Write a sequence for this structure.
């Protein structure tokens, strides 16, 4: 099976600024693939290169085995859902959805059928004769989706399509997008800066930063085994503590923190003793107790608590001005009375600590 | 409401006792200098002419009658249609249309070019477009006359590079008048089109291209319809003053290019004129302009629904 999109050494310069440097990876057929990163990381530029709105400075882009980077956008069998939808304001919903089909020279009867099918798919039946300005944000979003999917593209590109919607609608559309992708079998390339969106919808995620791909993997891999400090910090919340390796056994290392405490962690690459880096521990992998638990634990003083409904986030002060964020479900806290200033023990869940070399 | 939250009073509440009076200067200027002259013209057009200019305060339809009917030298022949003035009107409309088309053909690409420059250089381009308009209209029209006359620079240049063998007859033609009008009113076309292209969201063009539209189709079925209000506004702003212009036809045209503006001007110049007839011609011109504007307003309101 050839991959849907194959990027090879793709580079893009804008004047003296390098937006993308040497990006190479494959996107599989039928995959929900997400480009995730902070603004300015090059994710939108990459999408625009695939769509054909920008020319590559170097490298090749293949679409199902065919080289496409010299084709203009109107010759590429990919379609885009734009960030602010870019619906044609002078056309009604049906005309917007049918536009590409008209351009492709479909017979009128077929266009009517396909538009009806798409309108059905995004549940906009009673709005077909409305202009975009007469629709709500969520409805415009659906029109943009239907318009891009009408010509049955091989790959659908989505440029932060949910960023203009309010929270509740955004959550609904996530489920909706995932459903559409599964039902149509179209390869989705989804650009977002919202990690929750990326984790909840994607088959695979490429985390990007400063024009380069930092890690590609399933949501689980990226969250549980971040490749480097950037990924660990960007995806979810984490505690990053400077540390140095004492002894190493393959990927398993024993390292010491600045305050002299020692803990075991899983490294992101095989290391020898003396290597420096950070230990990353997710707040939800930590537990605070008043009595010393069995196994490894760190001593500290309880700081502020922030209540979040289902759980509570504590700040624990260790020696040497180190602080840890700890997130615990409230049903497990109820049994012990924790007060600010109490001496406490922080234990780490088995295998939860990651050592990320600098 | 947000504006007044600090003091507990809104801005509109602060000004409400005097709000009516603040608009008074505007009402006075519009009333005295705009409505009164038009009403005066309307009244004059229904009065009897005084032979040395001026009017006799006696109701008469003679001015309108003279415009449409020919009743012979002494006014007692059976009426036949008088084509002279109707011809002048039709010619004026055609000349104004010609000038509008010229302005659109040159003005649209100009406006598009300016609107697609980097934001910090657009003001310079706009300034360049308006520079000639710091010179008096009369001077500009006269210089146009020198430019295009038989042995003027334009013909000399064309002869020199061998495009033509004999000088082109440009002066005193309809085209010369259209050229003069075009030169007089080009910014009125460029500025509104610039304003609408500048607001145009170029993501729409990208979207159309993404949806398989070739370049010309994007121009025809996306860009043009979306910026159409600017184009229509520009066309009206050029067409309306062109219709009543008299400088360009007088200076650049010959006897065969006589336009309404000149006809009206003649009725009020010196003491050979016919004020009620001039007023009637003005009223007919005004009605035609109103028809054009109504047409525009209807098109606009249809766009809104």
């Amino acid at each position: 099976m050839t991959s849907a999109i194959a990027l090879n050494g793709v580079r893009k310069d804008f004047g003296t600024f390098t937006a993308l440097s040497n990006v190479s990876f494959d996107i599989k057929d039928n995959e929900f693939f997400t480009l995730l990163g902070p603004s300015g990381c090059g994710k939108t530029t990459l999408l625009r290169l695939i769509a054909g709105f920008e020319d590559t400075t170097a490298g090749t882009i293949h679409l199902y085995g065919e080289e496409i980077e010299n084709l203009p956008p109107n010759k590429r069998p990919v379609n885009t859902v734009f960030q602010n939808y870019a619906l044609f304001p002078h056309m009604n919903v049906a005309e917007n959805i049918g536009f590409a089909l008209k351009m492709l020279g479909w017979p009128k009867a077929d266009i009517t059928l396909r538009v009806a099918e798409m309108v059905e798919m995004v549940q906009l039946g009673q709005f077909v004769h409305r202009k975009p300005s007469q629709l709500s944000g969520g409805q415009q979003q659906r029109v943009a989706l239907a318009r891009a999917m009408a010509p049955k593209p091989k790959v659908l590109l989505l440029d932060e399509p949910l960023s203009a919607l309010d929270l509740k609608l955004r959550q609904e559309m996530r489920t909706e997008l995932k459903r559409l992708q599964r039902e149509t079998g179209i390869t989705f390339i989804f650009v977002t800066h919202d990690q929750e969106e990326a984790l909840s919808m994607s088959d695979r995620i490429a985390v990007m930063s400063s024009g380069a791909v930092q890690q590609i993997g399933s949501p689980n891999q990226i969250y549980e085994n971040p490749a480097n400090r950037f990924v660990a910090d960007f995806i979810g919340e984490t505690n990053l503590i400077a540390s140095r390796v004492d002894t190493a056994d393959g990927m398993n290392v024993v390292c010491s923190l600045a305050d002299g405490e020692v803990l075991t962690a899983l490294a992101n690459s095989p290391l020898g003793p003396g290597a420096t880096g950070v230990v990353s521990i997710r707040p939800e992998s930590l537990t605070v107790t008043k009595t010393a638990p069995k196994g490894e634990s760190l001593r500290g003083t309880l700081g502020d608590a922030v209540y979040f409904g289902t759980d509570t986030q504590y700040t624990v002060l260790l020696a040497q001005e180190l602080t840890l964020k700890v997130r615990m479900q409230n049903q497990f806290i109820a049994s012990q009375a924790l007060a600010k200033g109490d001496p406490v023990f922080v234990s780490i869940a088995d295998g939860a600590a990651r050592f990320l070399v600098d | 409401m947000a504006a007044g939250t600090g003091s507990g009073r809104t801005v509109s509440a602060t000004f409400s006792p005097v709000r009516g009076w603040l608009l008074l200067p505007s009402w006075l200027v519009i009333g005295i200098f705009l409505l009164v002259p038009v009403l005066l013209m309307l009244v004059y057009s229904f009065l009897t002419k005084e032979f040395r200019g001026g009017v006799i305060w006696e109701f008469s339809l003679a001015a309108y009658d003279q415009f449409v009917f020919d009743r012979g030298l002494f006014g007692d022949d059976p009426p036949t249609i008088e084509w002279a003035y109707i011809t002048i009107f039709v010619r004026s409309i055609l000349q104004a249309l010609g000038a509008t088309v010229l302005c659109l053909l040159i003005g649209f690409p100009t406006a598009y070019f300016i609107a697609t420059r980097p934001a910090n250089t657009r003001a310079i381009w706009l300034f360049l477009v308006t520079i000639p308009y710091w010179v008096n209209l009369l001077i500009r029209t006269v210089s146009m006359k020198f430019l295009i006359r038989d042995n003027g620079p334009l013909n000399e240049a064309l002869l020199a590079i061998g495009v033509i063998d004999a000088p082109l007859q440009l002066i005193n033609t309809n085209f010369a008048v259209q050229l003069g009008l075009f030169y007089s009113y080009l910014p009125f076309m460029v500025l509104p089109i610039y304003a609408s292209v500048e607001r145009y969201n170029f993501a729409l063009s990208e979207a159309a291209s993404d949806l398989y539209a070739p370049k010309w189709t994007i121009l025809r079925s996306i860009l043009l319809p979306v910026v159409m209000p600017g184009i229509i506004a520009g066309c009206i702003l050029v067409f309306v003053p062109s219709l009543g212009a008299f400088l360009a036809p007088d200076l650049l045209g010959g006897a065969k290019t006589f336009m309404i503006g000149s006809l009206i001007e003649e009725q009020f110049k010196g003491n050979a004129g016919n004020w009620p007839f001039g007023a009637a011609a003005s009223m007919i011109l005004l009605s035609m302009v109103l028809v054009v504007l109504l047409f525009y307003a209807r098109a606009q309101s249809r766009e809104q629904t």
